Amino acid sequence: MSNRQMTAAFLMILMTAALIGCAGYAPEEIHYGTDQCDYCKMTIADQSFGSELITQKGKVLKYDSIECLAAADMALASKSQDVHSRWVTDFGQPGQFLDANKAWIVLAERQKSPMGIGLVAVSSEESAAKLVDDVGGRIVAWSEIKEIVTVAWKLENSN
User: Fold this and answer.
1) pLDDT digits over 12-46, tens only?
2) What is the rounded distance in angstroms from the CA atom of residue 60 to the CA atom of residue 126?
3) Fewer CB atoms near the end CB (10 Å): N or C, the chain?
4) Residue 70: closest CA among 30, 27, 115
5) How far apart are CA 70 and CA 15, in angstroms?
6) So where are the chain's domains?
């Protein structure tokens, strides 16, 4: 193998490793009853509501609810910290994470969440519609969730 071929092979290996490293950010297991919410500092206890935010640098921040995730997301944005991804727990499959951008979020009337607003995540539109039928409420978008939390908690929204 020539020096040029060896250099090319080495560069390909480095590029592959870099891509794998960048793409490898994923939610971590929440240790319910032990881990503390990175926003409100309460113990994360309910497996139906845990959520996580992963920064561009790969730091995983854990939250006890979608409400705390949204509030933390706004706080990070005000500090110009980039978010890699947001993860919410599937209410129908406790302990199972969903990408917050793909999850269906319901603002439930009769299903309270740990922080009391009633934000619940599910994996499909059908599950969301059934949840609305069962507990009342409506389906909401991520931008609306931030506004709901801002108003309910009297936060200053920098977005």
Assistant:
1) 555 544 444 445 799 999 999 999 999 999 999 99
2) 30
3) N
4) 115
5) 34
6) 3-152
